[in-house]
Amino acid sequence: MxxxxxxxxxVLTVPDxxxxxxxxxxxxxxxxxxADGIVTSVNPRAAQxxxxxxxAFVGLDIREALPLxxxxxxxxxxMTDPWNGLRTRTGHREKLLQLPSGLELLVTARYLRSGRxxxxxxxxxxxxxxxxxxxxxxxxxALISTIAHELRSPLTGVKGFTSTLRxxxxxxxxxxxxxxxxxxDADADRLTRLITDLLDVSRIDAxxxxxxxxxLTTRDILTxxxxxxxxxxxxxxxxxxxxxxxxxxxYADPDRLDQVLSNLLENAVRHKAACVTLEAAPWEGPTGPGxxxxxxxxGTGIPSEQRRAVFSRFWHGPSGGGTGLGLYIVRGVxxxxxxxxxxxxxxxxxxxxxxxxxxxxx
Length: 362
Prior knowledge:
The chain is α+β, with helices and mostly antiparallel strands. It is 40% helix and 23% strand. GO terms for molecular function: phosphorelay sensor kinase activity.
């Protein structure tokens, strides 16, 4: 050991007023007990989480004050036993435990010892509210449930048509076979989109969505997306495309921009009454100039109190269709480009979704 480095015991020795002030400032709960297991201090956050005043715990055995259990109902203290267990053990990493009341906590423990493998001198237990993790788990469970539900329909169609064709191929006319194959192809495309959405949501959540920006011709891209809807049966007169001077070129990842426009157009078509308008205009954003893309419809619009939730996962409009992931992905993709997305009232009624893409990065 470096002679200038104080021993562990000296490092951990802090004047009581300083230690108390530091513990009170911690965002997590902290419960401290001496070598005998008697609780010596409980910081305000721990008292808040345990829903009792700190004085109610001081003087109790920590195993009585915090009867922590695993999800199987086993005593965590009996399993870890800092008093009679291995002396080389200095604590435990964060673990999800619960109290007999059912309150779930994320618990981390530190065992202070006198020297290496020496006798126990104190036990520190850090408590963190598990509500955030529980919400994240519920969100993931809801995502899996939603995707599983959406996958079931096209899979059923693919399975039904392929099974029927395989067993009764000779009984169908060429036209009937072609119709079934087209249905299979459409269901396969839908499955691909759903899987892509699931992967993109995971990448957005993890902050690992990759973007490769290149200069793109704005009008060509907008027109191509309109043509897709026209080819799918929409009336060409239902769409209006406007590209203002200065917005002829946009810097974006071509695949990701297609994803944004596809989701915005599908959303607008679902809610339109007569017309969908696609606009591109130059815009001065907080990080410099860029292009603002706007997709608006003349439907019923989005109530102002719901707009905050529009870009969240599983949001469904009045129609209730889709997975509820489209606008969440739109925001994630646009923000990955360094831009932002918003929703507002369209000038002629209905709703308009705007997505700002910054200009070329120098």
